[in-house]
Design brief:
Shape: elongated
Distance between the termini: 103 Å
Strand content: over 45%
Largest sheet: 5 strands, mixed
Number of strands: 18
Strand order of the largest sheet: 1-9-8-3-6
Helix content: 10-25%
Structural class: mainly beta
Order of helices and strands: EEEEEEEEEEEEEEEEEEH
Length: 236
């Protein structure tokens, strides 16, 4: 009846409720938890607040406890009651909170936007920080990108990040040549088995100077051709 877990995990206990008599009874279920905690009961996967048991019948149930996000590490007693019109049954559970997992993802300056030229590559510096009280292991990075864009990360994976520690990660983005100028949304993600975070980023794509000059040249050539045709055939 003792479970050890992080504060942001669910403590799940298995129990058996039995009606020892011969008279059908309805048992109301409750638990005394600290302020800010949540508790629920499930039978065959369905949430319940009471159980109707015939005589000499028993039922398996799950007790799910969620600590408060701000709970301090330590041992916490959780008395559970099943109350009927004939008797009161009690079971004492114990939750050992060993800390919490948390991670944030941002940039060193806090700026979540940048510019890039179509057909070019851009490096975006990200900061991954462990804001919890427990180590994070095997942190993986990913990105949600516009079609045909690519992104690689350096390092590709963080094996471990201790509490209050941070690590810089470089996201290398490649933008296709014919990308239309404008603003594009990118979502960077960092994920481990214990926690995850994301950062919404805006990339402004600009056309290259060469493409601009080529466009102007094409327009000038077109104007020149029209002027030549007017001079040559305009009097006929």
């Amino acid at each position: 009846m003792n479970i050890e877990a992080a504060a942001n995990e669910t403590f799940r206990y298995n129990a058996t409720l039995r009606n020892p008599g011969t008279t059908p009874l309805v048992y109301q279920l409750s638990a005394a938890v600290p302020a800010g905690w949540m508790v629920g009961f499930r039978v065959q996967g369905m949430p319940v607040t009471a159980l109707n048991l015939t005589g000499a019948k028993s039922e398996e149930l799950s007790v799910e406890v969620n600590p408060s996000p701000n709970v301090k590490p330590g041992k916490y007693k959780i008395p559970v009651h099943a109350v009927s019109s004939h008797d009161t049954l009690q079971l004492e559970l114990e939750a050992v909170v060993k800390g919490n997992y948390a991670v944030t993802l941002t940039t060193p300056t806090g700026r979540l936007s940048d510019e890039v030229t179509a057909g070019a590559h851009q490096e975006i510096h990200l900061t991954v920080k462990n804001t919890g009280t427990l180590p994070l292991k095997e942190l993986e990075h990913s990105a949600q990108l516009p079609p045909q864009w690519t992104c690689t990360f350096e390092p590709a994976k963080l094996q471990q990040l201790n509490p209050d520690a941070s690590q810089e990660v470089i996201a290398k983005i490649s933008v296709p040549d014919k990308t239309i100028a404008g603003d594009y949304a990118i979502t960077f993600n960092v994920k481990s088995q214990e926690s995850n975070a994301q950062a919404a980023f805006r990339i402004t794509v600009k056309t290259s100077l060469l493409a601009g000059w080529l466009g102007i040249l094409i327009i000038l050539v077109a104007i020149g051709i029209v002027w030549y045709l007017i001079r040559k055939y305009g009097r006929r």
